[in-house]
Specification:
Strand content of chain A: 15-25%
Number of domains of chain B: 2
CATH superfamily of the largest domain in chain B: P-loop containing nucleotide triphosphate hydrolases
CATH architecture of the largest domain in chain B: 3-Layer(aba) Sandwich
Largest sheet of chain B: 6 strands, mixed
Distance between the termini of chain A: 30 Å
Strand order of the largest sheet of chain A: 3-9-5-6-8
Distance between the termini of chain B: 36 Å
Number of helices of chain A: 15
Structural class of chain B: alpha/beta
CATH class of the largest domain in chain B: Alpha Beta
Helix content of chain A: 55-70%
Largest sheet of chain A: 5 strands, antiparallel
Order of helices and strands of chain B: EEEHEHEHHHEHEHEEHH
Radius of gyration of chain B: 18 Å
Strand content of chain B: 25-35%
Helix content of chain B: 25-40%
Oligomer: heterodimer
Number of strands of chain B: 9
Number of strands of chain A: 11
């Protein structure tokens, strides 16, 4: 443990005395103040909030991602190139401890910079502004739904022979992708029902439903309807009347009140408009339940960002343990770009059955890269923070556990295996 | 392994390979070596003779391609073996932003010393290498000789039983060279085992009890300095063979 702290504090001392930490802090704070001046919003409070969170805090996160990655790849690789690493390796210290201490030191530097940026954000925000839990309808997972669809698909004589010959895993993946976008259609005077699972009893006030109308068909006609939420014998209701908005939030009023401990809520939407409506339950329907304030949400978003930085540091140190520094930086940068780009590539070209063999190979590689980099690319607390959507505690705990403890430990162990092999060269 | 043997190499071979795993050079070729407790053992040889590779295998920084390397009867990478080792590399390789005192405290900590113990040890060693007046200056601003003395002190900070010195007097002025030699003799007198490499045969002659001369990765001679019968330099040149080549290599180094 003593060795861990020695190496940890050595890295921190190096960052302080080389002035890189000070530079990073100054650049971050300057950006926090400059971003709202540089980017022009749409004049709404929401727009200003989005700029403040997305561009200011997001800019600091991007700056940290690049600088931590550069530092992490050099943490071992540069010491090895300068032959300083061998002086540590001949001491009675485990190589895993060397790698883990370096990862944690870089994560701590990232945590400090993010903390300062978050304090700036907190100072100019209304910390008591409420945020909401965003609940989605309880549904089978896309994979489960795909399995059901697969049976029906293969039993249908009109299914093309090309699809029948395709690998089951490929077809299932495509069906899972489609199930994400599956529409529920509700005709005039018809009713759709979705079930939600709340974390506890629902409050009397502050509940609302968010509906997204993403296609032009919906927007041309006026959308009219009645919403009714039932939890046991308690009921809330609201009216939908929309002609232009792509996203509407309909507040719900309690119309009957009995103390309930039930957490299953059923939301019914009765379409009273002139046209049928199509809604994707996985994407277009949310129940919004009041949660705590922006201050707590900011803290949770901060923890998720720290977890992201920690994972980036771990990946950088691992790459630096096995590769020379320039190669490690190049590899890390490519991985980062792939992690950002691959999800959109996959979404744009979901159907490899319709592409040729070369495209299929390319998509296969992209999908594998997206899978590997998912732990980083899936962390996006800032989007939720700017929408006042709650960054959920359980998710934060899981992200912190995986990205700050488990993944760095695993990568430190792997780095420890690579260190003596690379020293040979 | 005999009780008094501190370092042992048996048939140690190190072959470096290229990207396609084709052998490029046999840096060490079936070397047998034994360093006994309390002696000062010199590893001599011209450039490219395999001295550094041998040292790196002993330190656990390189794995032998074949053969066996042991330190204190254990694999060199074992924590127990490393806890009894001190190492001074050919160049100092210090962290430039740390002060001399912090450098010793850092390496003391890695050797398992408590903060207080490391602090006391650092003061003691800084005074021994006559750097107590500049103890709180970053070593990045030190002259080569001063940096060398800090590196030597940091090799001694964990009270090692085996001290490996790679060209210990390289870059030192004559006075400092003499001081290092005196220190090596004093450490050996106190029972420390010392394994050193040197290009400077006079240095080896002054401090070593036994030497081994390496050429092309093989031992060409081994014995007690006193028993070699002639000046070590003449003996060395006779064994290595090509005197001109050696002089040129030494000059270039």
């Amino acid at each position: 443990m003593s060795s861990f702290w020695r190496i940890f504090s050595l890295e921190i001392t190096a960052a302080v005395r080389s002035k890189s930490l000070v530079l990073l802090l100054v650049a971050s704070v300057a950006w926090m103040f400059a971003a709202p001046l540089l980017f022009v919003g749409d004049g709404t409070i929401e727009g200003a909030r989005a700029i403040s969170v997305h561009y200011s805090l997001g800019g600091v996160a991007a700056l940290l991602t690049i600088s931590i990655l550069a530092s992490a790849t050099g943490a071992i690789a540069r010491e090895r190139a300068e032959k300083r690493l061998q002086l540590t390796l001949v001491r009675p210290v485990r190589y895993t401890v060397v790698a883990f201490a370096k990862i944690m030191a870089l994560a701590a530097i990232g945590a400090l910079v993010l903390a300062v940026a978050s304090v700036v954000e907190a100072c100019r925000s209304d910390l008591s502004r409420p945020c909401r839990h965003v609940l989605s309808p309880v549904m089978p997972t896309p994979r489960e739904e795909a399995l059901v669809m697969y049976e029906a698909f293969m039993g249908d004589p009109s299914t093309p022979a090309k699809v029948r010959k395709a690998k089951k895993s490929v077809v299932l993946r495509l069906l899972a992708q489609r199930s994400l976008d599956r529409y529920d259609t509700v005709a005039t005077n018809d009713t759709l029902r979705w079930t939600f699972k709340s974390k506890g009893p629902l409050p009397d006030d502050g509940l609302s439903v968010r509906l997204r109308f993403t296609n032009a068909y919906d927007i041309r006609d006026e959308v009219r309807g009645e919403l009714r939420l039932r939890v046991g014998d308690s009921t809330w209701s609201g009216s939908v009347s929309n002609i232009t908005q792509a996203v509407v939030e309909i507040p719900l009023k309690r119309i009957s009140s009995i103390s309930e401990s039930v957490t299953d809520a059923e939301l019914a939407f009765c379409n009273t408009g002139r046209s049928a409506l199509m809604l994707r339950p996985r994407r277009d329907v949310n129940l919004l339940v009041p949660a705590d304030g922006f201050g707590w949400n900011l803290i949770r978003a901060y923890l998720e960002l720290v977890a992201m930085v920690s994972l980036i540091a771990a990946i950088g140190v691992f790459l630096g343990a096995g590769l020379g520094r320039p190669v490690a930086i190049f590899t890390a940068t490519v991985a980062l770009a792939v992690s950002e780009m691959s999800p959109s590539v996959i979404e744009q070209y979901p159907d490899e059955l319709e592409t040729d063999r070369i495209d299929a190979i390319g998509l296969y590689i992209t999908r594998a890269a997206a899978e590997v980099t998912h732990p980083i690319s899936s962390i996006e607390p800032l989007a939720r923070l700017s929408e006042d959507a709650c960054v959920e505690r359980r998710e934060v705990a899981r992200t912190v556990l995986v990205n700050v403890v488990i993944a760095p430990l695993v990568l430190a162990v792997l780095a420890a295996l690579l260190i003596p092999r690379k020293v040979e060269n | 392994m005999k009780e008094e043997t501190v370092v042992s190499l048996k048939g140690a071979k190190k072959t470096f390979r290229d990207f396609w795993l084709r052998p490029t050079v046999n840096a060490v070729d079936g070397l047998d070596l034994e360093v006994r407790r309390g002696e000062v053992f010199g590893l001599l040889g011209p450039n490219g003779s395999g001295k550094s590779t041998t040292i790196k295998m002993i330190l656990g920084l390189l794995d032998p391609t074949s053969g066996k390397v042991e330190m204190f009867g254990r694999p060199p990478r074992s924590l127990e073996a490393r806890s009894r080792l001190g190492y001074l590399p050919e160049l100092s390789y210090l962290h430039p932003f740390l002060t001399a005192r912090e450098t010793l405290m850092y390496y003391g900590g890695l050797c398992g010393l408590s903060r207080g113990e490391a602090s006391r040890r650092a003061d003691q060693l800084l005074s021994m290498v006559k750097l107590q007046d500049v103890a709180n200056r970053p070593v990045g601003g030190f002259s080569k000789g001063m940096a060398r003395r800090v590196a030597l002190a940091s090799a001694l900070v964990g009270r090692p039983e085996l001290l490996v010195l790679d060209e210990p007097t390289s870059g030192l002025d004559p006075v400092s060279t003499k001081e290092v030699k005196t220190l090596v003799k004093a450490l050996a007198k106190n029972g420390m085992t010392i394994l050193m490499t040197s290009h400077l045969l006079a240095d080896a002659e002054d401090v070593c009890d036994r030497v081994m001369i390496l050429d092309h990765g093989k031992s060409v001679a081994e014995g007690e300095v006193a028993e070699l019968g002639e000046s070590l330099e003449d003996f060395f040149l006779a064994k290595v063979g090509n005197a001109d080549e050696f002089v040129l290599a030494d000059f270039l180094s």
